[in-house]
Write a structure and sequence with these properties.
This protein has 169 residues and is mostly helical. Helix content is 80%, strand content 0%.
């Protein structure tokens, strides 16, 4: 795994980002609001993993209103994971704690909604949680884990919006 939990290489991520950007253009020309939101969130996810966090965050911010309208818990969980990467790398004192809250909220949302994780996603989540735990320590992580048990779709969306607003570019 690289620094953001991706088993592939940067060329793979850049190619995926280019393809998703093309898909976004097609979706925008079709006018399908839901397709635009999904493409934008997926593009953001890949951009963040490719080390292009500022671009990814911009797509997240633009997708968030539509994500709330769609009510898709898997999309919300994907955005939470992307925001977790951004907050962990932010370099401010609250970044790791915010990242852990986002990661665990996404994990809890997936668990509650019965959303299965592909192995690469499981590896990524495990890597994020390991890195966050190394920084914060087991007691803080246990406290954040207890907080996350009350996470539902609405709370997860609110957490994503707050994180996107908090994270500067």
């Amino acid at each position: 795994l690289n620094e953001v939990g991706w088993k592939g290489n940067l060329e793979d991520l850049d190619r995926a980002a280019a393809l998703l950007a093309e898909a976004l253009v097609v979706d925008e020309s079709s006018g399908s609001a839901s397709a635009i939101v999904v493409s934008r969130a997926n593009l953001a996810s890949i951009l963040v993993r490719a080390g292009r966090a500022d671009e990814g965050l911009e797509h997240i911010r633009r997708a968030l209103p539509g994500i709330a309208d769609l009510g898709d818990p898997e999309l919300v969980a994907t955005v939470l994971t992307s925001l977790s990467h951004i907050r962990l790398a932010a370099g401010d004192p609250d970044g790791p704690r915010d990242a852990a809250r986002l990661t665990l909220a996404g994990e809890e949302l997936r668990r509650r909604e019965g959303i299965p994780l592909r192995q690469i996603e499981r590896d990524e989540a495990d890597d994020l949680l390991r890195r966050e735990s190394e920084i914060l320590g087991p007691d803080v992580m246990a406290s954040i884990q207890a907080e996350s048990r009350v996470t539902d779709l609405g709370a997860s969306r609110r957490r994503a919006v707050a994180a996107a607003e908090l994270t500067g570019t």
